[in-house]
Every structure is written in C-alpha cells, then in structure tokens.
Design brief:
Blueprint (H helix, E strand, L loop, with lengths): L5 E4 H6 L1 H11 L3 E5 L2 E6 L2 H15 L1 H15 L7 H6 L1
Parallel strand pairs: 1-2
Antiparallel strand pairs: 2-3
C-alpha cells in the first residue's frame, strides 16, 4: 500500500476542498481520502496525474522498454555513457 503524506476523512475534505486543492498544487503531495475509515480516493495535482499517465504509457510500450533494458545492460557492462548535455550539444 502507498504511504501518503496526509490522510483525511471525506467529511473534512468536503469542508476545505478549495484549500486542499491549493495545497496539492503547491506541494505536489497527494492526499488520501477515507470514507468510513477505508481508503476511498486520492487527491493529487494535475502535474502528478500527468506524470503517472506518462509513466504508464512508457511502461506499456514494449519497444521503449526493450530499449531501456538494452541501455541498462550496456551500462552494466561498462560501456560509455553520455549525459543529456553531451547528446544535445553534439
């Protein structure tokens, strides 16, 4: 299970939704919301949500994952690595 920075019951969330939305936008930390003591939802920023979707897209792309695995194997073998700056400067 995910460890959330903050967990609040839905009754408190309803009372301060605007403040909590502002908080997740500013801190980029998600808030777990419970209903009757059980985890029911998660409030997170758009940036965090989009990042999760991008991660899922990458992980579900077999050709991208194959290239990542190949690159990791090359790095483990000690083959030369290039920094992001090196690649874009050339």
């Amino acid at each position: 299970m995910v460890d959330f920075n903050k967990t609040l019951p839905i009754t408190l969330v309803k009372q301060d939704l605007l403040g909590l939305v502002t908080e997740v936008q500013q801190t980029q930390e998600s808030i777990a919301i419970t209903r009757q003591g059980q985890l029911a939802a998660v409030l997170l920023s758009v940036d965090e949500y989009e990042g999760l979707l991008e991660t899922i897209e990458i992980l579900s792309n077999k050709s991208v994952m194959a290239q990542i695995k190949k690159s990791l194997n090359e790095a483990k073998k000690g083959n030369k690595m290039y920094s992001h700056e090196d690649v874009w400067l050339k």
